[in-house]
Specification:
Dihydrofolate Reductase, subunit A, two-stranded antiparallel sheet, globular
Length: 193
């Protein structure tokens, strides 16, 4: 099995969205460079960010998100983001009415069954878990191997927390990698077992 990685861009004070559920400037670093990160050339980052993020993205087999993220993105119109092969949506509800059953999405009730399904699909590739409530649930359950953060130079003061509702202390090893991009600090930690 591949690693299970919790990942997101985050404010300096630990939020993935503001009080209005908006990311604000958290993703500005994806547009402020000159090296294309995606095939369409929409995302352009510094060379340091490109080398770090592209190598990670190319290892992802499945992304796990909550129903809230799925609904906010309109399910990415049935095409998983960033070239990911499959998305597992943690939800208590079925797929939306009219959803294309052939789209590479699975709808699973509960974090543990969702991660089992994601690992089945991903094989030895990375299972990425979106930070926030779903990521926090997986983290609290001891299902996360690595934490990756793209820290943006903004302080929200309040909003949606990177680790969701996690309220217990947990030690991480590292950071095992620290890279400074243009307008972003890339951090990577291993979860201490």
């Amino acid at each position: 099995m591949g690693d299970v990685v919790m990942y997101s861009s985050v404010s300096v004070d630990g939020f993935i969205a503001d009080q209005d559920d908006q990311p604000g400037p958290l993703f500005d670093w994806l547009l402020n460079g000159d090296v294309p990160l995606d095939d369409g050339g929409v995302l352009k980052v510094s060379q340091v960010s490109h080398d770090y993020v592209r190598a990670y993205w190319d290892r992802i087999g499945v992304t796990v998100v909550g129903r809230h993220v799925f609904d906010m993105t309109d399910g990415w119109d049935g095409a998983p983001p960033a070239g990911v092969d499959h998305v597992v949506v943690v939800t208590h509800r079925p797929a939306p009415e009219g959803w294309d059953a052939k789209a590479p999405f699975s709808f699973v009730d509960g974090i543990e069954p969702a991660l089992r399904r994601a690992q089945e699909i991903a094989g030895d590739r990375v299972v990425e878990v979106a930070a926030g409530d779903v990521g926090g649930q997986a983290f609290a359950a001891g299902l996360i191997d690595e934490v990756r953060m793209d820290v943006a130079p903004v302080v929200f003061g309040s909003g949606k927390r990177y680790f969701g509702a996690v309220d217990a202390q947990q030690l991480l090893d590292g950071p095992v990698e620290i890279l400074q991009g243009d307008g972003v600090l890339h951090l990577r930690y291993r979860v201490r077992r």
